Amino acid sequence: MTTVELEEERKEIISRYRKMLRHAKPVLKDGDAKIIKKAFYTAMEAHQDMRRKSGEPYIFHPIEVAMICIDEIGLGTTSIVAALLHDVVEDTDIELTDIERDFGPKVAQIIDGLTKISGVFEYGTSAQAENFRKMLLTLSQDVRVILIKLADRLHNMRTLGSMPRHKQLKIASETIYLYAPLAHRLGLYAIKSELEDLYLKYSDQETYREIANKLNQTKVARNNFIKSFIRPIRTKIGTMNYPFEIKGRPKSIYSIWRKMKKQNVPFEQVYDLFAIRIIIDTPMEEEKSTCWQIYSLVTDSYKPNPDRLRDWISTPKGNGYESLHTTVMSRPGQWVEVQIRTRRMDEIAEKGYAAHWKYKENSNKQNGAGGLENWIAKVREMLEQNDSSAMEFVDDFKSNLFNEEVFIFTPKGDLKILPHNATALDFAFEIHSEVGAKCIGAKVNQKLVPLSYKVKTGDQVEILTSTKQKPNEGWLKNVVTSKARSRIKEALAEDRKRNIEMGREIVERKVKQMKMDYNEVTMQRLRAFFNQKSIPDLMDKIGKGEIDAKEIKKFQEAREQVSSKKKTTTQVTDASTFKKEAVTNKNRERDEDILYIGEDMDIFEYKTAKCCNPIPGDDIFGFITVNEGIKIHRTSCPNAVELMSNHGHRVIKARWASQKDESFLTGLRIEGTDRVGLINDISKIISEDLKVNMRSVSIESDKGIFRGDIQLFVQDTKHLDQLIKNLSNVNGVIQVTRTDLK
After folding, report:
1. Predicted TM-score (pTM) of this structure
2. Could you tell me the CA-to-CA distances from 389 to 112, 122, 123, 127, 584 in Å, in that order?
């Protein structure tokens, strides 16, 4: 770069830094600006020779992350300093000890939590999962680690356009799998929505653009509708003498897409594209009554749907969210969601956890701060008791702490909060570990229910126990909470330990009776004879009585037979390996110009994944499996997010090249109004007009509505699109959609 360009760049860096300081001014105390300045110059010097993929100076990134922390999360000086320095330990020569010396232990602790783990990971685990666990370990001391990490992720997603396609998919998948739910759980709804939208933008660009364009086209009509809808409400609320604001906000592109998928409808049939939000300034002690007053005024103007009333003011969500939601019928006959909240509630809804500190002096269980504190306490408890692999931990964490809650009452009226889909057995362990371990059933609202009963909000649950009861492996299928799973596993481990000891005693006695040596070789032969994965597994089953001790006598008689069987097995294995190689070579001859795989776009052997059945023309990626080589998935595959987020290091690029005349299995769902000859017309288009072979057809008709699921072979996505278009033109067919094969 020329000297002039470098000088312009330096001016831009200083300009962005000053803008950040101006935005931070309201939260700065004496001496804070000096510390931030020191952090900025430390970061600028450390990153001076580094550039991002877009070609911009790297220092732009930490400045923007700090800006998000200030403007969109509402964090203070310590977080701003940590945001500016968040990459220096990982990417430059600066050590954590240098950070602690210059900026204190608190900043160093946060940066340690933000610094990615380096080194070798245990085989089969995910680097991303390990990073996430480490970050959560730091959360047990300081929630700001997660908040800054979310700001970092949001800026990376905003600038994802400069990354190669396969990296976009990996980062976007990890974001939707972990970071968007985490933002939601911490009450950062604006950030959560943007992360979800950006995920869709990079994972399914065509769908994103289509919805965005249609939202833009309907903007004028939508705004006119909102103005006419709020006119009578505005007049009535104006008489209350409180400052207020009413705004109509369109739903996020991602939430519209989710609704389209869930209800299997096009954009034009998604009616609740926006929500009306009423925000009122009122003293804290009058918040609840004022919100209900406004609810009364809204329902005076429009008829409410009683099944769609949500009261998160009386019982806030676990992440602190408070609001009153109702759905009312507008004049043109369209349902409209109305959200009623105070200014304090709105700030907490937008800025989540960080906003609680602003109201901390007044916080109590009513305003939801307690719910978030309880959630973080549960995170700590889960980290302390967790001894599973990183992958299991992340799955457990997601299922326990990202789900919505249900509110349950004890017989004495105490409130317990459990995750969605929790069971009576989860409730028993929530009361006490001993109660859970002895649980034989429950009474819900005075009616007897099994352990697997899924509790619902408002249930009053009484646990029934017995001293003779003890946990068994089947219980693990009936619980979702980390606490219950952990306690059951502990009890099973104790049982297993006792069974193994008992099994060893039995085996040792039997082996000596047969005048054989009791040693490792004999034990391994016994394990193979009983077809067990390990010696402890064998001892456990013998100790439990699942393998009869008398069967051990047969082991001696069968030793010679087992030896000869092994030789036979080896020959069969060699033959099957030869056969497999022959098939592979045949496949290579057939497929060599179909698919290019990897960074260098080489030709490899591959299989197409049965979960999504990709066909030429689909947007795809390769996944390196443990036992089956490379598998090709569609980027819209139901399993894509989990594969890319948990095993990003095993995801590789793949693209279709020129293809041969081959057919690929896919599925179609056809819906419409039934009539005589409809099936014949559909079959004619499929088999005669487009020469497509059908594998299976499943058709049902109920009260004049026709539904058909067809599995058929097509050449590529163009062939499929033409087929869908032709079928859509058949008289009586309302909708034709591609489906994933089961």
Report:
1. 0.66
2. 21, 9, 11, 12, 35
